[in-house]
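Below is how a single chain appears once it has passed through the pipeline. First comes the sequence as given, then the structure the pipeline wrote out for it. We keep one example in the README because the format questions we get most often are answered faster by looking than by reading.
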Amino acid sequence: MKVVYLLLLFFLNFAIINAEKENVKIFVANQLNQNVIWGTIKGDHFYPRDTVIFFNDFVRFHMPNNINYGVCRLVLGQSAIAKVMNEPPQQLDFIFNGEDIVIETDFNAPLDSAKDIESLENQIWFEFLRKEKIYQEQVKELVMQINHFQKNDDTYYTLAKRTEIIGKYNKLQKDRDKLIASVTQNYPNLYASKLIKIKQEPFLNGNLSEQEREEVQKKHYFDNIDFSDESLMNSSAYTDKVFKYFMLYAQKGLSKEKKVDEFKKAIDVILYKTSQNPNVSAFIVDYLMRGFEKLGLDNLQTHISDFYMIPHGCSGDNNTLERRLAFQQMKKGDKIPDFTLDDWDGEQFKLYQSDTDYKLILFWETSCPMCKKILPPLKNWYFNKNIDLEVFAISIDEDKKAWKTSISKNDYPWINLNEANKWDGKVATAYNLYATPTMFLLDGENRILAKPIDFNGLLEAVLGLE
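Resulting structure:
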């Protein structure tokens, strides 16, 4: 009996120790704020996960099981000067891939002083970022000098001086290429290597004119860049790459119409080069559409919608430019129209009568292949969601028997509604429906939070609400 008791005590202590094991521990010298926020990165989004207390010069926390491997961020807070000047807080991005993480850093220079005692990923990543920071500063200065003496007859820049500057510029680029190649070859399976490899850029010979260098960069920017790896969506790698390329087309002195034409060229290249993986492609499309919406560039949204979004769904005769534009005008924060439709039992249902915290309206059709693709994962997510959200699935099937058969066969657990007038129904018209599946994510006040174009887009939109 005594032996059994001792064994139970041993296993109990073992379980407690393992349950309390913290796999992230970060020491911060000169930390000013008691509360520190950590979260995850997905594209241009930062999703705060928790607030942890700074105690005895460090913070520590355990990564939840549902955290994907990728880049996380520790927000340390604002310095005294930053508060006065309304500047961003001090922060440190680090890689989480299941390794224990023990980082030492300094509040005043989080990246420059960061070192990870446990994680090889972060050791390599931090070192590369520090070198990259120096590289970008040096290249910026050399490019300014090269552009200056190519355009001006400045006697300070003798032929020997110009040759020296161009030599330094070219060597810097080659040294950086060697560094990236060395890291990715020596550590091919590390997440850090993926992040570093995507930072490759074309070689721009300093002997070329500024315009010639710009053309080389536009033509070869995406050479040897792999956009098939979905794990990189758990970082800002893809969106940073796309943004930098897009800005190559932001030329000064162009009329508004000319700028739009140039941006369309950039969009066409970006969406062609990032089309290797449908999920990554949808991720990039969503990033661009949200960005253009914030900037009020409706014509660029229309360009993407016209040429890149329709193949992802099924459209009808109403797929007109007018309706697409009207759909795009339904912005985040707008209150959605109310509707009354019959449910499965023939009872009338009103959207505004629902009092859940969040709502998802999904327009679909039984004959739509993309609808059949999105419904199974949506059903699985519905049963496991950690949010007070109800789904309102509106079928536009004219054949109610086919609609009911599909629901019965697949046992869809949400509120199932039908408007049997296809694209010309009152609700379809009010919502400017031109393709299925179409989704609207709403808050409790029936205001638009997002219009995801696929299931991954929905997960991304909901992640910040859980």
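Residues 210-312 form one domain.

See the next section for the split statistics.
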